[in-house]
Amino acid sequence: MFLGSDPIALPMLDWLAGEGKTMAEVIGVFTGPDRPSGRGQKSRPNPIKAWAGERGLPAYLPEKLTDSDREQLKQQATDVSLVLAYGQILREPFIAAPRLATLNLHCSLLPKYRGASPIQSAIASGERMTGVSLMKIVRQLDAGPVADREPVPIGPLDTAAEIEAAMAEACQTVLARALPRLARGELDFAEQDHAGSSYCRRLLKEDGALDWHALAADLAARINGLFPWPGCTIEIGGHQLRLGQAEAAISDPAALPAGEAGQVVGPDAEGLLVETGGGRVRLRRLQRSGGRMLPASEFLRGFPIPAGTRLTSHPMPPLVSPHPLR
After folding, report:
1. Which residues of 60-82 are buried (b: 16+ CB within 10 A; e: fewer)?
2. Burial of 176 (0-12, 13-18, 19+ CB in 10 A)
3. Same domain for 122 and 71?
4. Is residue 176 within a helix (H) or strand (E), and if so which, with residue range?
5. Do residues 137 and 232 touch, judged by C-beta distance below 8 A?
6. Domain match, 145 and 240 both
7. Which has the closest alpha carbon to 217: 124, 112, 285?
8. pLDDT tens, position by position, 96-136
9. 108 & 132 share domain
10. Domain limits for position 153
11. DSSP label at residue 146
12. What is the mean pLDDT of the chain?
């Protein structure tokens, strides 16, 4: 039985229903109820429910898991509950209902980045490696023992969109190793190093604020980590512009003439340069409201941003903590 609501799981589910069916058969899904979305706020099924419907599989949509949901697992003779980005707290009777295990695929190399936004927070923190961890679920947040990990490298220009796609493939790799071992009773688990844990939280729209007094590398990492959601923005002439990709163009402030943080230097061949509190950041992709995300050179042909333009700084809320965040 699969439990999840995020489309990141779709490639893995396709694999399980196809090539991976020799290891395990998906017998149904638990996912979030239909919710209003889009401009018209029409109620639409989430992608996991739609996936199950296309294959004639039952989809259970509880607002909150109950004893009757636990009974569904037992009646279906569930061997394994597999959880990925579900968003509900599982109580002990529900965790214990499957015959073999309730396992969670968490998109970080645990114990780092426990919580709701591990992909975005790892990129925004400047990590160059993340990955998927297969763990047992316990009542503490992402603190269960881990059976396997699959690393995923983060390139200097990778955004959350690219890393989510890589994570989806890594989930398949982990399951291809783990499911046969689980069936044979040979899947071993090791406790996490809880002293090395860190926590991330659910992202909010205001997390897209930028403080240009920060270092160029830190600003680039945050812009890339928070794309596509919630997306970092700047305001110029009353227009809100979304930033889709960035990099530290010059990270050594000593190599630059004195400049004011947030001052636009001007375009180069790869993007738009902006002074920061430490070096220059290159904005590589920008988007106007209602428009498409464009490479900076193309964007600037239709929306010039003169050198000397000052970008306003705003406090950047912290994304990661050594303690659980709400």
Report:
1. beeeebeeebbebbeeeebbbbb
2. middle
3. yes
4. helix 160-183
5. no
6. no
7. 124
8. 999 999 999 999 999 999 999 999 999 999 999 999 999 99
9. yes
10. 2-200
11. E
12. 93
pLDDT at 40: 61
**161-216: pLDDT as tens digits:** 999 999 999 999 999 999 999 999 999 999 999 999 999 999 999 999 999 999 99
Tally of domains within the chain = 2
Please write the tens of the pLDDT for every residue from 235-252. Answer: 999 999 999 999 999 765
CATH of the domain at 284: 3.10.25.10
Let me know how long the chain is: 326
**46, 72: one domain:** yes
pLDDT of residue 250: 78
- How far is residue 76's CA from residue 262's CA, in Å, rounded to a whole number? 58
Confidence of residue 225 (pLDDT cuts 50, 70, 90): very high
**Same domain? 17 vs 143:** yes
Place of tokens 């982990």: 174
- Three-state SS across 247-280? EEEECCHHHCCCCCCCEEEEECCCCEEEECCECE
One domain for residues 212 and 134 = no
Torsion angle of C-alpha atoms 178, 184, 186, 189, degrees rounded to 10? 50
What are the structure tokens assigned to 127, written together?
């990590």
Q: What is the CATH number of the domain that holds 156?
A: 3.40.50.170
Sign, Cα dihedral of 290, 293, 296, 298: negative
Dist CA 214 CA 223 (whole Å):
12
117 and 141 Cβ atoms separated by less than 8 Å: no
Would you state the pLDDT for residue 187? Answer: 97
- Average pLDDT value for residue range 28-48: 79
**Which amino acid type is present at position 281?**
V
Residue type, 100: L
Rounded distance between C-alpha atoms, residue 206 and residue 79, angstroms: 42
Any idea which residue has 């920061």 for tokens? 276
State which amino acid sits at residue 250: I
Encoding tokens for residue 174? 């982990």
